[in-house]
């Protein structure tokens, strides 16, 4: 059976069950070519879905035509189901131009309307006995039921697919919103809200490895803002954000807590690891914040703990950072172990 490639999936199942019916139609009528069409009443188009039989009359599945050019329409309009003299009765028709002499058509309908047609044709003259006509009508009914069922199934699966796509869109949108809500727009780091959620997760999941908290504050940032303007201050914060991202691992938590204050949390890290990380960060920040690097340094506080993570760990790192400020800024202070 030749068929259109436009459809797939459940349509192939439908095709399998229609195929023997078309063969039967050929046996009943004695006509060589049998085909089924789909009629789109709104678009006024007709499409050949399946063709069974000889290649004598060139009808291809997938072929589309205007309803105004349809042989089926001509016969429907004459309240007829058969023409045995197509060339005489419809000399200017598509059927005549394709070499049809006999053309038989029966409507294929769903519960509301005609949705297609079952057609049989031949280049020779054939008559159709009343019994054959009756049998063909039964076949058209069977095809109608199958097509209608398939139509309903495919409508349902299209609706399901649309709902699935809509839900996916909503999910992506809400993920995007939540990502935005947790991110500091200037630096791309987590904001306070994002930090709190990650920090809570870490506290809940933490087992026994040591965790280093690095508190960082830009030195004399207010002065720099006042001297060069807010935009330069923003550029410097952005450069710091980039430096921190470049120095961190995927598992680290990097956040801008507000203004020029940041937290950097490293899992599985010792004091020495944290000091190394702080050193790398200073160097990277210096590189990325040219040409005003000389005017801005970092005060850094470190605290490391391996058990009972709580917010005191943050406070201790922060306190160490303020001690670094007190010692003249641009230094790293490690808090005493608790
Ligand atoms: N450009 C810019 N400035 C900001 C932003 N948020 C906060 N600030 C400014 O950052 C400055 C923070 O200054 P402070 O932390 O009080 O003090 P500081 O000048 O850094 O001095 P020390 O911390 O003692 O070294 C304030 O002047 C804020 O107005 C921002 O998003 N962009």
Low-confidence stretches: 1-7
Question: What is the C-alpha radius of gyration, as a whole number of Å?
Answer: 39 Å
Shape descriptor reads: rod-shaped
Topology pattern, helix = H, strand = E: EHEEEHEHHEEHHEHHEEHEHE
Number of strands: 12
CATH superfamily (homologous) name of the largest domain:
GAF domain
Level-1 CATH class name of the largest domain: Alpha Beta
N-to-C terminal Cα separation, in Å? Answer: 83 Å
Q: What portion of the residues fall into strands of 2 or more residues?
A: 15-25%
The CATH topology assignment of the largest domain is Beta-Lactamase
Structurally, the number of domains stands at 2
Helix content: 40-55%
| Average pLDDT taken over every residue | 91
Structural class: alpha+beta
Ligand inventory: guanosine-5'-triphosphate
The profile of the biggest β sheet is: 7 strands, antiparallel
State the CATH architecture of the largest domain.
2-Layer Sandwich
How large is the count of helical segments? Answer: 10
């Amino acid at each position: 059976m030749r068929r259109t490639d436009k459809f797939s999936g459940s349509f192939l199942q439908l095709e399998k069950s229609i195929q023997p019916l078309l063969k039967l139609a050929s046996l009943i009528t004695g006509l060589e070519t049998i085909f089924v069409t789909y009629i789109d009443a709104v678009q006024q188009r007709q499409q050949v879905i399946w063709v069974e039989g000889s290649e004598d009359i060139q009808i291809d599945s997938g072929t589309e035509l205007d309803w105004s050019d349809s042989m089926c329409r001509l016969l429907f309009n004459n309240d007829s189901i058969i023409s045995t003299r197509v060339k005489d009765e419809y000399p200017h028709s598509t059927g005549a131009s394709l070499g049809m002499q006999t053309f038989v058509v029966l409507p294929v309908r769903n519960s509301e309307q005609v949705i297609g047609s079952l057609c049989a044709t031949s280049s020779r003259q054939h008559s159709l006995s009343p019994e054959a006509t009756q049998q063909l009508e039964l076949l058209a009914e069977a095809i109608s039921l199958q097509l209608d069922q398939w139509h309903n199934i495919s409508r349902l699966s299209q609706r399901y697919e649309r709902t699935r796509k809509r839900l996916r869109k909503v999910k992506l949108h809400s993920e995007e919103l939540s990502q935005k809500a947790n991110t500091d727009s200037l630096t791309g780091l987590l904001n306070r809200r994002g930090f709190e959620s990650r920090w809570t997760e870490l506290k809940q999941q933490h087992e026994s490895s040591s965790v280093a908290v690095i508190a960082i504050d830009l030195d004399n940032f207010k002065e720099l803002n006042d001297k060069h303007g807010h935009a330069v201050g923003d550029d410097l914060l952005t450069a710091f954000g980039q430096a921190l991202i470049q120095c961190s691992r995927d598992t680290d938590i990097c956040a801008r807590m507000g203004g020029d204050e940041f937290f950097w949390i490293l899992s599985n890290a010792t004091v020495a690891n944290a000091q190394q990380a702080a050193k790398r960060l200073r160097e990277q920040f210096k590189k990325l914040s040219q040409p005003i690097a000389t005017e801005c340094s970092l005060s850094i506080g470190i605290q490391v703990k391996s058990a009972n993570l709580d917010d005191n760990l943050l406070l201790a790192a922060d306190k160490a950072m303020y001690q670094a400020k007190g010692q003249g800024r641009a230094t790293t202070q490690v808090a005493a172990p608790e």
